[in-house]
Recover the amino acids of this structure.
């Protein structure tokens, strides 16, 4: 992959990954404060349940997705690797990237439309804390969209490392 | 409908063999299958919501939290010390660390309800040590993937709770029922390890000579924090201070605090642990999110339902029906996540079998055991994937190490079928 | 004539009352009365979508009909959540009929058609009751001060805290263990559903005449699917829906009655609150309704008018 392209994609990968890391750390704190507060002081952390499920889990999954793929973290079968790698031009990897780019692009597009409509409606939950639910839906299109971009680039510049690079 | 299901399953194989990441293959074939069975509306409707819905789950938060705890323990070098100590004690035996991993797996299973989380934790903790002491990669990773499955049988177990919820069977009785089969399974793993290292001594080299007793005791010095942590987590769950869902988060926080207080974790260790935990969690969660699309596709084709109807219509002896259902669970286990299998099949299989007079609690153990075996069978053995990704050993190598254990698992399943008392004796004492 | 296939999705296992009283009779009656022209395919137990995603599933035509829990959609159907407020009714059959009227009139455009769905029938459960793992008496509301009560949703949290209790969110799969081991002291729940989770095994007592809110469900059909159905098919579905709306609420009410018998048989103490205690509850619970109206009006929604309309339907 040409360096400027790689650097641009990695830049966003890293930002997304940093937010995902923050999410897993905050999740640990939020659930712990809820559980320990309830046991020790009879004061659970209200809203921890919704905050964890609606935001932190989604952020962790989908913002962690592009960087995990880029670093070869997604598991795949490698039984045919020695043979596939010998075909000139790496056509199998290109086709993989093409299919995956298409499907993740499709996912990002439609979940993006969904997210926009939630923002327009400003859907908010009722309760002790009124959660702005529209902020729960933006992470799917963001993560899948960035992944689709990388995959699209890989159609032209297929990755040579089937197994990952760490 | 059936032809689409078969076609998509074949395509799933092809894409997997072509080296496409597992999560992507589930999403691709699920989406294409949805389009072929229902057209554009179900496709768009499912793809934009199902991956999101399946990860917005509080119970599922247990998974990243246990992974994070494992990474903090590793960054604080506690797990390494645990296995170094067990190597001092058991290392002169062949396969010592593997036995230590079985013991560790039992302890982890008593705090974790998720097999995937347990496998990830064990792999991160034990594999570097096993490699350092010269264990064969296939053997060590295979054993770790298998030992991780203990978590779904030994209570607390997400699988047993789910079974109880779906079938209106006593959750308390189910959890009690899981204890003996869990112990039996653990013992069978230890026996398998003993058998493997006898037949192939190179798989697990022994240390040169037994370590002195003084050094062994000295080795325990850094082990007590992790034992204390495990002990307090078990105590916290059984006393009701913390729910099984929350214990991962509190455990991770405790591991972090212990590591910082004992000055065993610097800023860069912390960042590295956080990054590794995020990566591993995001990978597992991506598989769960993407397999949701494939699961809904299978549901919409009605293939599982039709199969069960056919069994019911054939009017065969009850025992044959039971075997057929278990066989179907094992076959589904090749492709699907354990919880997905239970969710897909229980609504039809349970009334069918309970109607034939089988004891629900016993059925729960058999179902969970069958789903457990699916965790380690190719091509969709999620525990194998988790271990492979954590250890950077190729999936193929892990699967090779898993096979002997799969055979033993089938024997254990046969024992559970032949002797219902193994499952039913303890709940009967309640 | 071409055969019409309708997909019906819900969150209940086939063994659950929620399925036995709605999805299964709906399928049977529609298929019977259309003389086989309409086929209803059931997708129980969250097979097609998680409970929280059923509205999206029917909106996006993943399914044609879905039984949607109102508690999960308080963001997109905020005014509908009025029917889950505590103390509005004692007879859940009347509550269900009033809810259907509200859904098909005042709320039809703003809450249902806006989301691309149309209500077929609705149901509210009999009022929630307080149940305890150890406690066996409840003579004064002050006894709930600081007691950890499992609350099922956001409204449940407000209800518990208005009574002085500490609301705790526990996933349904953890509730059994949480009660057994004392993570929570009790739960606000409806009696028939607790058998599905074997909660009766870990209970000591349950109230019989408290009114701690309710859970509402609405069977929704995709509006495009509905408009695409031939007139005669719509007629059959509407008729069956109306009947099920009545029988389901009645069936659930009946199950509540038999649930108490079963619980008493198991040695669980039934607590009947004295009129004085009930009055204390009612007074404390008023803050929940006030908070609901405040939040709705704060979003520019006609909260008070909706409540008034619901109350007037209840009077009928
Ligand atoms: Na367990
Ligand atoms: Na498998």
């Amino acid at each position: 992959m040409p360096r400027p392209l790689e650097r641009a994609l990695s830049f966003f990968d890293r930002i997304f990954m940093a937010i995902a890391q923050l999410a897993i750390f905050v999740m640990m704190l939020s659930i712990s404060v809820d559980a320990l507060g309830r046991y020790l002081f009879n004061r659970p952390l209200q809203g921890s349940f919704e905050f964890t499920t609606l935001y932190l889990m989604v952020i962790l999954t989908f913002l962690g997705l592009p960087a995990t793929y880029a670093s070869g973290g997604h598991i795949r079968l490698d039984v045919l690797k020695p043979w596939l790698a010998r075909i000139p031009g790496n056509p199998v990897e290109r086709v993989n990237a093409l299919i995956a780019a298409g499907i993740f692009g499709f996912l990002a597009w439609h979940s993006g439309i969904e997210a926009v409509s939630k923002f327009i409606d400003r859907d908010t939950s009722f309760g002790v804390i009124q959660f702005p639910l529209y902020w729960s839906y933006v992470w799917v299109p963001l993560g899948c969209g960035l992944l689709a971009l990388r995959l699209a680039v890989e159609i032209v510049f297929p990755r040579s490392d089937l197994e990952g690079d760490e | 409908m059936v032809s689409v299901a078969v076609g998509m399953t074949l395509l799933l194989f092809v894409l997997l063999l072509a080296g496409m990441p597992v999560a992507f293959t589930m999403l691709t074939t699920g989406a294409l299958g949805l389009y072929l069975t229902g057209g554009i509306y179900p496709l768009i409707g499912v793809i934009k919501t199902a991956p999101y819905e399946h990860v917005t789950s509080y119970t599922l938060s247990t998974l990243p939290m246990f992974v994070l705890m494992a990474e903090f323990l590793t960054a604080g070098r506690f797990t390494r010390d645990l296995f170094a100590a067990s190597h001092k004690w058991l290392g002169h035996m062949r396969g010592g660390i593997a036995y230590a991993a079985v013991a560790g797996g039992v302890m982890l299973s008593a705090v974790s309800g998720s097999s995937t989380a347990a496998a990830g934790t064990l792999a991160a903790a034990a594999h570097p040590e096993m490699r350092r002491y010269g264990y064969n990669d296939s053997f060590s990773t295979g054993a770790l993937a298998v030992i991780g499955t203990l978590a779904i049988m030994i209570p607390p177990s997400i699988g047993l709770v789910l079974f109880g919820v779906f079938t209106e069977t006593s959750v308390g009785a189910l959890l009690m029922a899981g204890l003996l089969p869990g112990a039996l399974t653990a013992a069978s793993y230890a026996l398998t390890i003993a058998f493997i290292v006898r037949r192939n001594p190179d798989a697990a080299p022994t240390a040169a000579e037994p370590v002195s007793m003084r050094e062994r005791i000295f080795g325990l010095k850094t082990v007590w924090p992790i034992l204390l942590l495990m002990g307090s987590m078990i105590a916290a769950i059984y006393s009701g201070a913390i729910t099984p869902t929350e214990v991962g988060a509190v455990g991770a926080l405790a591991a972090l605090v212990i590591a910082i207080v004992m000055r065993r974790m610097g800023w860069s260790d912390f960042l590295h642990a956080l990054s590794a935990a995020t990566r591993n969690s995001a990978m597992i969660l991506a598989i769960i999110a993407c397999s949701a699309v494939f699961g809904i596709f299978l549901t919409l084709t009605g293939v599982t339902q039709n199969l069960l109807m056919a069994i019911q219509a054939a009017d065969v002896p009850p025992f044959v029906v039971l075997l057929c259902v278990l066989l179907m669970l094992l076959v589904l286990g090749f492709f699907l996540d354990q919880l997905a299998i239970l969710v897909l099949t229980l609504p039809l299989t349970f009334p069918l079998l309970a109607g034939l007079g089988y004891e629900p609690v016993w059925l729960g153990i058999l179902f969970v055991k069958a789903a457990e075996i699916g965790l380690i069978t190719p091509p969709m053995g999620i525990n194998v994937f988790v271990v492979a990704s954590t250890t950077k050993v190729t999936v193929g190598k892990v699967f090779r190490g898993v096979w002997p254990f799969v055979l033993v698992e089938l024997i254990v399943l046969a024992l559970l079928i032949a002797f219902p008392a193994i499952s039913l004796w303890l709940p009967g004492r309640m | 004539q071409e055969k019409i296939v309708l997909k019906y999705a819900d969150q209940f296992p086939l063994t659950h009352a929620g399925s036995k009283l709605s999805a299964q009779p709906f399928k049977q009656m529609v298929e019977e009365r259309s003389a086989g022209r309409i086929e209803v395919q059931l997708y129980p137990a969250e097979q097609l979508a998680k409970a929280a995603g059923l509205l999206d599933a029917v909106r996006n035509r993943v399914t044609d009909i879905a039984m949607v829990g109102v508690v999960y959609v308080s963001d997109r159907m905020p005014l509908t959540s009025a029917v889950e407020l505590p103390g509005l009714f004692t007879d859940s059959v009347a509550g269900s009929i009033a809810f259907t009227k509200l859904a098909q009139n005042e709320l039809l455009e703003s809450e249902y058609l806006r989301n691309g769905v149309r209500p077929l029938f609705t149901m509210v459960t009999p009022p929630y009751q307080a149940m305890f793992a150890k406690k066996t008496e409840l003579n004064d509301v002050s006894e709930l001060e600081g007691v950890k009560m499992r609350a099922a949703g956001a409204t449940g949290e407000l209800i518990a805290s208005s009574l002085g209790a500490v609301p705790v969110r526990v996933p349904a799969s953890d509730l059994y263990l949480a009660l057994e081991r004392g993570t929570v002291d009790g739960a606000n729940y409806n009696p028939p559903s607790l058998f599905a989770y074997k909660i009766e095994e870990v209970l000591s007592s349950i109230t019989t005449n408290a009114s701690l809110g309710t859970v509402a469900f609405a069977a929704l059909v995709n509006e495009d699917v509905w408009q695409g159905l031939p007139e005669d098919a719509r007629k059959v579905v509407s008729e069956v829906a109306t009947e099920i709306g009545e029988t389901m609420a009645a069936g659930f009410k009946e199950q509540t009655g038999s649930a108490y018998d079963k619980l008493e048989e198991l040695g669980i103490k039934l607590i009947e609150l004295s009129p004085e205690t009930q009055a204390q509850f009612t007074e404390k619970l008023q803050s929940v309704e006030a908070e609901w109206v405040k939040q709705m009006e704060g979003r520019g929604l006609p909260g008070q008018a909706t409540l008034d309309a619901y109350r007037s339907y209840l009077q009928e």
In short: The pocket of sodium ion (ligand 1) is lined by residues B 109, 112-113, 151, 154-157 (CB under 6 Å). The radius of gyration of chain A is 20 Å. Chain A has one domain: 3-156. Chain A touches chain B through 62 residues (CB under 8 Å).
